[in-house]
């Protein structure tokens, strides 16, 4: 169930308030205080909605309301408070005696926003408008690149930015294998014995040795089967 309406809309006046209605509302509040706004219209003899009575009193009939235009001091105070509180108009109005939140909000939208924009200040962030453009990141050439471009435009040879990389790869057998097999091969050579191809290169010991066979040559023909690797 929703909240019941504060009054019967069929029996309430709408539109501008008359001088007689203002006097009745003022006299009742002076005599009895604000009280409950839902029951106030009937007690004051007004054919008005409770919300309408509250807004009429707060925004127009209160004795402490300040009339007239906003002063320069009030403008600067509103700008300072807005930078701290944002669009919390009721809190801002609480720091400006005699001004209502609705009045301050309307004055902000109609006057102060234009004043800040004319100063080059963003009304939402309270920062310079040009700060957004200056915050963009710009990419420029370094000093070395600028010199290369200059030398290239004058017809001189441009120094390469990165040195050439030498990608030539060298592969060799581990030295410990040579230490294991080459001494034995050298000793066989001193004794006049023939050594196989694997022993001369120092290949791993798991490869079948064909010493005295001279690389597996038979009748001057190279026999690849004699070099079969396991």
UniProtKB/TrEMBL annotation:
Q: What is its main location?
A: nucleus
A GO cellular component annotated for this chain's UniProt record is: nucleus
Q: Does the keyword Repeat apply?
A: yes
Compartments, as annotated in UniProt: Nucleus
* An MF annotation (GO) of this entry: transcription cis-regulatory region binding
SMART domains assigned: SANT (SM00717)
Q: Record's superkingdom?
A: Eukaryota
Keywords annotated in UniProt:
DNA-binding, Nucleus, Repeat, Repressor, Transcription, Transcription regulation
Q: Establish whether keyword Nucleus is in the entry.
A: yes
Q: Which SUPFAM superfamilies match?
A: Homeodomain-like (SSF46689)
Q: Where is the Myb-like domain?
A: 9-61, 62-112
* Protein name in UniProt: Myb-related protein Hv1
Question: What is the scientific name of the source organism?
Answer: Acorus calamus
């Amino acid at each position: 169930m929703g909240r019941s309406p504060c009054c019967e809309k069929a029996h309430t006046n709408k539109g501008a308030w008359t001088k007689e209605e203002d006097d009745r509302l003022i006299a009742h509040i002076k005599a009895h205080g604000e009280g409950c706004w839902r029951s106030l219209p009937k007690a004051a003899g007004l054919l008005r909605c409770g919300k309408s009575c509250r807004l009429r009193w707060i925004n127009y009939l209160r004795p402490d309301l300040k009339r007239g235009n906003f002063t320069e001091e009030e403008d600067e105070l509103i700008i300072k408070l807005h930078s701290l509180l944002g669009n919390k108009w009721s809190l801002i109005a609480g720091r400006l005696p005699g001004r209502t939140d609705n009045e301050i909000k309307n004055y902000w939208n109609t006057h102060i926003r234009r004043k800040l924009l004319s100063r080059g200040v963003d009304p939402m962030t309270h920062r310079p408008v040009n700060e957004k453009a200056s915050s963009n990141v710009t990419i420029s050439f370094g000093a070395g690149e600028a010199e290369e471009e200059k030398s290239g435009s004058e017809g001189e040879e441009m120094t390469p930015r990165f040195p050439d990389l030498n990608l030539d790869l060298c592969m060799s057998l581990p030295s410990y294998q040579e230490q294991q097999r080459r001494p034995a091969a050298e000793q066989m050579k001193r004794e006049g014995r023939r050594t196989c191809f694997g022993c001369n290169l120092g290949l791993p010991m798991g490869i079948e040795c064909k010493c005295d066979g001279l690389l597996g040559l038979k009748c001057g023909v190279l026999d690849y089967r004699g070099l079969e690797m396991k």
